[in-house]
Amino acid sequence: MFTCARGEESRESLGVEPICKALQFAPSTYYERRAIARDPDRASLRAKSDAALSLKIDGAWADNRKLYGARKIWHVLRRDGEDVARCTVERLMRALGIKGIVRGKKVITTNPDTSLPCPPSRQICFANRLPGNG
To answer: Are both 81 and 55 inside the same structural domain?
Structure first.
């Protein structure tokens, strides 16, 4: 859908069909999205339930100091009586752009001093130490 003001201006001057052809989607898709924006009852059941669940997921995530990942958010929703699949929680969290805290970051034990030049590489010749050579 043409979301920016410039897109709406282009729609007024060029028409919907040429823009949809350039963006490679059917004009009926554009008109259906516009109709859903005007009347949210026309949206699919999944879209309606996703919108409601997104609010609950965002609330549960914020209530738990923005630390919980999909598995724990799923447990919180189940505890609150919301029957939802964990994969649905994962999908909606990705769509919302939220994620839990990540454990197990790599521990760096040695930090090189980058201000000093690297020592010259040593090339050791093992040919003299092989049996039969010396």
So the answer is: yes
Same domain, 37 and 53: no
Which is nearest to 86 in space by CA: 96, 72, 100?
72
4 vs 124, residue with greater confidence? 124
The domain containing residue 67 runs over which residues? 44-106
What is the maximum span of the chain, computed from C-alpha positions, in angstroms? Answer: 92
E strand residue ranges, 2-108 = none
Query: Would you say residue 133 has pLDDT above 80?
Result: no
**pLDDT 10s digits, 52-87:** 999 999 999 999 999 999 999 999 999 999 999 999
Domain identity same for 12 and 59 = no
Q: What tokens does 42 get? A: 């026309």
